[in-house]
Q: What sequence folds into this?
């Protein structure tokens, strides 16, 4: 005997696509965390109601197609220069919310000078930094954050500190600068870490809304395609190899803005 | 109007203020430092922004950001600095963004030196960075023109949504001349074009996107032809040059910028000695006054190009020369200056 249960009220939608994300399919590979990060940015923009005054700056890499997904004004920056572009926009429109979206090659190699100096100026912008330890879009070459021993297409025998140097810890470096207001590292490997990541991204935007200065969130992400792993193996690698070297947490959080 | 004794670099900076430019991003390099120093002092007084960036690369990318945000914006530099900016200038052209790059040339290649040169002619007139693009290039020959052509360059940049370069050299940048400048207009009285494409938040409209990446099949070819049409329009509508004493001339000197001033004195000396010599001075180096070269050389079959390089504009003159005309070059690279006596001697040789 079967019984059809009719709910007393219509089901209430409690979760969905953020309003400021376009209803299109992400081009990202299976298991890639760019989609999660896009969604968290979208949720933060929705929750603060800032879609119509937000301007994104897309770096060069897999994240360049930000403008296909996030429905805000977007500038495509040259490789590494997103923080300089964001500075220019911020000086013209100090009342807007400006964020950059950059990968590890873009932000920590070719664009290191722009990143550091923009942070040091305390530019009131938010930087979303996706660290997956490889150049994704160009096919998995060694990045400044590639771990020691990690094989990539340009470190086929594994990264060696004698020739290649050590992986750069951006949060630790930027937290030393007087100009940074908020610096945090999060990860996307578990639901718990995703919740923490969302919280940090929201906090970074809030810091900018409150004119506190430069806010920076590094997101440890998986790149199963270029790591030669399944998504499940890749998330395990984030926990087993990345987090021990790139510890999670809030490295700096200002409570008072410079201008106060 | 009263004349004020003004340094070339400062005339550019003041010209930018008169043009309504309120955003400057730059990095120190000789011989253009008077520009950032002047604007660092003046911008805060008029609600403008001055940033000394960490490099020329950062400068041009801040310019790109501010241009995308809809502002009238500029930077300035010299040889090595402008070389570093070329990636950004290519992006400005590819993303169709208006901005002004002031180029006060110093001798090269490499670190070279701080003496004047026109050795950067081919770099700027050929675009300078990667890809099939050009920038508008204006070349003043006096401090007065450094003021007025700065304003003109901003207007052309906006008209075409394309970067413009003001090409000067260490002589022009560092010399003082009496200039008519006039009082600074109020910002609200300066007419600036509407920029509906600019990034300022999508309130009440669809999101704007500014980019130069086109991966779709055939998209980039369409984009390149669109840019080509823009350059064609520049040629038709905004080619500038000056001529002196060409009506009865039997020899035509072609020179631009500071070099044209020295050549003009040489021409005046030749005239005193009874030689009929005239001058064509390209003011827009891109678009180059191709038609003027063709028409004048058809009538004046002896042409002498005088330049402070090994013969860069010479090629542009030669390509557009009348078939029957005879072309000569007097070239002084690496800081060598063609004095009026030198120019007179060259004129005598071929007259």
A:
């Amino acid at each position: 005997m079967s019984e059809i249960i009719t709910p007393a009220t219509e089901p209430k939608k409690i979760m969905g696509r953020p309003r400021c994300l376009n209803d299109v399919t992400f081009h990202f590979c299976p298991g890639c965390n760019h989609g999660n990060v896009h969604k968290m940015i979208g949720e933060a923009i929705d929750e603060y109601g800032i879609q119509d005054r937000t301007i994104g700056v897309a770096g060069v890499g897999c994240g360049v197609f930000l403008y296909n997904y996030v429905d805000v004004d977007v500038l495509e920056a040259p490789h590494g220069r997103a923080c300089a572009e964001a500075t220019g926009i911020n000086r013209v429109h100090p009342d807007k919310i400006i964020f950059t979206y950059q990968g590890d090659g873009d932000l920590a190699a070719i664009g290191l000078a722009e990143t550091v100096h923009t942070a040091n100026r305390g530019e009131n912008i938010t930087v979303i930094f996706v660290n997956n330890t490889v150049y994704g879009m160009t096919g998995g070459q060694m990045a400044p954050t590639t771990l020691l021993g990690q094989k990539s297409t340009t470190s086929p025998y594994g990264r060696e500190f004698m020739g290649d140097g050590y992986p750069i810890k951006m949060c630790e470096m930027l937290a030393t600068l007087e100009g940074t207001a908020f610096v945090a590292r999060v990860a996307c490997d578990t639901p718990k870490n995703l919740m923490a990541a969302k919280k940090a991204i929201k906090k970074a935007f809030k810091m900018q809304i409150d004119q506190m200065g430069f806010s920076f969130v590094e997101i440890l992400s998986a790149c199963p395609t270029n790591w030669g792993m399944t998504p499940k193996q890749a998330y395990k690698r984030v926990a087993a190899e990345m987090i021990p070297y790139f510890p999670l947490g809030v490295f700096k959080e200002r409570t008072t803005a410079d201008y106060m | 109007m009263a004349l004020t004794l003004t340094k070339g670099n400062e005339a550019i900076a003041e010209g930018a203020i008169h043009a309504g430019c309120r955003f400057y991003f730059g990095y120190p390099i000789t011989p253009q430092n008077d520009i950032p120093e002047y604007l660092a002092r003046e911008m805060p007084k008029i609600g403008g922004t001055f940033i000394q960036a960490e490099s020329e690369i950062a400068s041009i990318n801040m310019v790109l950001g501010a241009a995308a945000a809809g502002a009238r914006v500029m930077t300035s530099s010299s040889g090595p600095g402008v070389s570093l900016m070329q990636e950004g200038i290519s992006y400005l052209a590819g993303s169709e963004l208006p901005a002004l790059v002031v180029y006060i040339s110093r001798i090269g290649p490499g670190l070279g030196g701080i003496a004047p040169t026109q050795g950067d002619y081919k770099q700027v007139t050929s675009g300078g960075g990667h890809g099939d693009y050009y920038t508008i290039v204006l070349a003043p020959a006096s401090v007065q023109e450094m003021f007025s052509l700065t304003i003109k360059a901003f207007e052309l940049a906006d008209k075409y949504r394309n970067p413009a370069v003001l090409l000067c050299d260490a002589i022009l940048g560092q010399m003082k001349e009496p200039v008519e400048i006039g009082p600074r207009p109020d910002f609200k009285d300066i007419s600036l074009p509407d920029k509906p494409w600019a990034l300022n938040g999508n309130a009440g409209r669809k999101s704007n996107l500014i980019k130069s990446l086109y991966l779709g099949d055939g998209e980039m070819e369409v984009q390149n032809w669109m840019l080509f049409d823009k350059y064609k329009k520049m040629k038709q509508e905004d080619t500038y040059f000056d001529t002196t004493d060409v009506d009865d001339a039997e020899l035509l000197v072609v020179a631009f910028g500071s070099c044209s001033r020295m050549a003009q004195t040489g021409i005046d000396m030749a005239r005193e000695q009874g030689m009929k010599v005239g001058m064509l001075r390209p003011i827009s180096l891109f678009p180059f006054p191709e038609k003027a070269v063709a028409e004048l050389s058809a009538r004046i079959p002896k042409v002498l190009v005088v330049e402070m390089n090994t013969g860069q504009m010479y090629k542009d003159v030669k390509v557009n020369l009348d078939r029957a005309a005879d072309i000569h070059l007097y070239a002084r690279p690496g800081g060598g200056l063609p004095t009026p006596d030198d120019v007179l001697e060259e004129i005598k040789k071929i007259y």
Notes: The first strand of chain B starts at residue 3 and ends at 7. Chain B touches chain A through 39 residues (CB under 8 Å).
